[in-house]
Amino acid sequence: MSTPASLPAGNGRGLARPPPPARRPSFKAVAWQVLAMLAVAGLIAWAARNAGDALARRNIDVDFAFLLTRAGFDIPFTLTTWASSDSYGYALWVAGLNTVLAAALAILLATLLGLVLALMRLSANPLAAWTARATVELLRNTPQLLQVVFWYFAVLQVLPGPRASLALGGAVFLNVRGLFFPAPLSPWFGYALGAGVLLALGLSRLLPRLPLTLTAGAPLLGATALAGALTGWDLPAMRGFNFAGGWRLPPELLALVLGIGIYTAAFVSENIRASIGAVGWGQREAARSLGLSPGRSMRLVVLPQALRTLLPPLTNHYLNIIKSTTLGAAIAYPEILQIFARTVLNQSGRAIETMTLVLGVFLAVNLLVSAAMNRWDRRLAFQGR
Amino acid sequence: MKFGNRVRFWVGAAVAMLAAGTVQAQTAIPVPGPTVTAIKARGALACGVDTGIPGFAFQDSKGAWHGFDVAYCRALAAAVLGDPEKVRYVPTTTPARFTVLQAGEIEVLIRDSTMTLTRSVQLHLDEVATNFYAGQGFLVSTKLGVSKITELNGATICTLTGATLELNIADFARTNGTKIGTLLFEKSDEAVAAMESGRCDGYTDDTGSLAAVRSTLKVPADWVVLEGVISKEPLGLHIRSGDVTWRNIVFWVDAALKTAEEAGVTKSNAEDMAKNSKDPLVKRLLGAEGGFGAMLGLNNDWTLQAIKAAGNYGEIYDEFFGPKALDLARGQNKLWSQGGLHYALPFR
Fold first, then answer.
1. Are A351 and B161 a contacting pair at CB < 8 A?
2. Sheet architecture: strand order including B181-185
3. What fold is seen in the domain B137-227?
4. pLDDT, position B28
5. What ipTM did this prediction achieve?
6. CA dist., res. B50 & res. B95, Å (int)
7. Burial of B340 (0-12, 13-18, 19+ CB in 10 A)
8. Searching chain B, which residue's CA lies closest to the CA of residue A335?
9. Strands (E), chain B
10. Where do the domains of chain B lie?
């Protein structure tokens, strides 16, 4: 840190002076603002009209009624039910869920792995520090699409064929076609599990003195046991060329989450490292003098304060992850770009409409995430002051 | 200043006289459509082709384009401009191809594209002629022990997104009560690699492309193209609707290439036959009689130039799909007189 005396005179003066008191803006200033706004609005209107005219001249009309038409194609992996007789509009929802699922898993992976890499990099153990450093440099200096495709084929190469699956207790199977596990037959499974989660949350809030394993663990275990007893299970089994029945996680999802999550973890780890560095050294010394172990001082003192500087760059990474899920189209993961901007666009020929919808969905999701992160950021900032 | 004005005056006068001359000439021959005018003004035909697929359109190590569709671009350029080299090739991806045509960046799309009702009606395109009759077939591992497409129930098939392929599979599965899963890739390289690593049981595409893909596999003998097809894929020449003159030119250039095969006119003997043939069909085809070129607003040697540039239909097919190339049996792509589907309208 340089002392104020070493700063250039002009800079020092500007920083030192308090902000001028608020004045009523002059008429001239307001007039210029209004003029500028009118000019921008006019430009937008002209561009829109120009686009409309050009489209009309080329016989391209804009019409969203095609969303109600029968889609007719199959989506290989869905979170909700999907039949090829459903509409294009419903396909947007189904594909949107797939995008959100991949983004959520990749965000989780990027954050956790980023934290681990950052802590390794900061550790006194040179082996850990250098491993983390090499990993980060390797990950952030190679193209993301290449990494996604690399993980896909790496995953495919490692896994065995369907007939030679790795089996776990005759219920869970892993092969090149995906990870297969039993699915509950009745919806009561989900309800019971949801009730268990609610109960666990409530109990751990009401009885904060009791250990978490008891207040949260017991209801969760009980609910899972109850849910398992309530319903039968649909077991995956080899039928024909593939496993049928049960739930399936496709290797495309795994590869996409690995590809995006690990890539972003490299950037996240550098941000975490910087944020930890921004927490005053005295805080750590104070924590140590209170008798906290290094691990507890990191978890209870340093990381909560580092979070404040970390959140804005972390939001950027999360938004980038959401947009990067479109790389899934390269490896056959049925996300919104592939289903909507490829299949639906091609079948309906509605290029302008489908692209507008895809852009709109990404804008909406990103604005939501951004708003949530900003809210969290504000809450942290207020508590700190 | 003064000098500039004078120059401008004389240039203006010359243009006016030229324009008057064209107007007079136009009373004798039909107006070239706006598309032909645009091509002539640019001095090149903007032709939309595939981004790269063996057989149809691919670049060599020097960047020059070759292929079945490329030969059609060359023939068209030769007919309109008299020079097959005057083509600006615009590689188009599957999702973007029709938009590129609608937006006017290309005059004709010759890109192994299936002609369908929605593409014609909804996208306002003219599907002028079929240059290749294909059908959607399947390439599967011999380990499956499957010999017919109907036996593929429960199989997963890798294919490309943005084409009619996945829809055909869905229709086929619906009709036959079978379930065939699809995995959609952006590029055939990745789809084929996923199939080779066992992620899918097979790969599906037009029969022409399947032959191309099989030739690039690590062990082609482990893979077999199943007999039969599940769809009609008439691959054709697409233009924007509205310019009748341009439509006629594209239609009749295609007809000329097919008629040339019928009449035995080839790349090498075309020049000679135009001068010496006694056959009235050949004389009309090659512009020695009939004045068909002038009726279309072109030179009368338009077909001669086209055939000299690309060869007749059979020569084009053999060059890219024949036994020395991808070795795909000609089947439906034979002329009608040999049991195929290509039936060119008479040059009369």
1. no
2. B181-185, B156-160, B202-206, B136-141, B223-225
3. D-Maltodextrin-Binding Protein; domain 2 (3.40.190)
4. 43
5. 0.70
6. 11
7. middle
8. B184
9. 45-50, 58-59, 65-66, 87-92, 108-114, 125-134, 136-141, 156-160, 181-185, 202-206, 223-225, 233-240
10. 34-134+234-338, 137-227
Q: Do B158 and A242 touch (CB under 8 A)?
A: no
Closest CA to A356 of A369, A335, A341: A341
Nearest CB to A343 within list B119, B184, B199:
B184
What are the structure tokens assigned to B296, written together? 């279309």
Burial of A285 (0-12, 13-18, 19+ CB in 10 A): exposed
DSSP string, A270-329: HHHHHHHHHS-HHHHHHHHHTT--HHHHIIIIIHHHHHHHHHHHHHHHHHHHHHHGGGGG
Domain pair B34-134+234-338 / B137-227, same fold:
yes
Q: What is the pLDDT of residue B260?
A: 96
Question: Which chain A residue's Cα is nearest to B97?
Answer: A346
In this complex, do B119 and A329 lie within 8 Å of one another by their Cβ atoms? no
| Nearby residues of A277 by Cβ (< 8 Å), 6 or more positions away | none
State the pTM of this model: 0.73
CB contact under 8 A, B183 and A252: yes
Question: How high does pLDDT run on average in chain A?
Answer: 85
Q: Flag if B201 and A351 touch (Cβ within 8 Å).
A: no
Query: What's the average model confidence in pLDDT over A144-173?
Result: 85
As a whole number, mean pLDDT of residues A327-334 equals 91
Nearest to A60 among B102, B162, B199 (CB): B102
Other Cβ atoms within 10 Å of B252 Cβ, number: 25
CATH number for the domain whose boundaries are A89-165+249-337+374-385: 1.10.3720.10
Q: B183 and A351 in contact by Cβ < 8 A?
A: no
In the structure, what pLDDT confidence band is assigned to residue A383 with cuts at 50, 70 and 90? low
pLDDT digit string (tens) for chain B, length 348 residues: 444 555 555 555 555 555 544 444 443 445 667 899 999 999 999 999 998 888 899 999 999 999 999 999 999 999 999 999 999 999 998 778 898 999 899 999 999 888 888 888 888 899 999 999 999 999 999 888 888 888 888 888 999 887 778 888 888 888 888 888 889 988 888 899 999 988 899 999 988 888 888 878 888 888 988 888 899 889 999 999 989 999 999 999 999 999 999 999 999 999 999 999 999 999 999 998 888 999 999 999 999 999 999 999 999 999 999 888 887 888 899 999 999 999 999 998
In chain A, which among 65-104 make CB contacts under 8 A with chain B? Answer: 72-74, 76, 84
Would you call A332 an interface residue with chain B, using a CB distance cutoff of 8 Å?
yes
Query: Chain A residues with CB inside 8 Å of B238's CB?
Result: none
Of all residues in chain A, the one with the smallest CA distance to B201 is A241
> C-alpha distances in angstroms, B110 versus B66, B67, B80, B91, B243?
13, 11, 16, 10, 17
CB under 8 Å to B17, separation ≥6 — which residues?
none
Structure-model confidence comparison of residues A276 and A203, the more confident one: A276
Under CATH, which number does the domain B34-134+234-338 receive? 3.40.190.10
Q: How many CB pairs under 8 A join A and B?
A: 116
Interface test with B, best of A159, A342, A348 (most B CBs within 10 A): A342
**Identity at B235, one-letter amino acid code:** L
Residues of B in contact with A152 (CB under 8 A): 190, 194
pLDDT of residue A3: 43
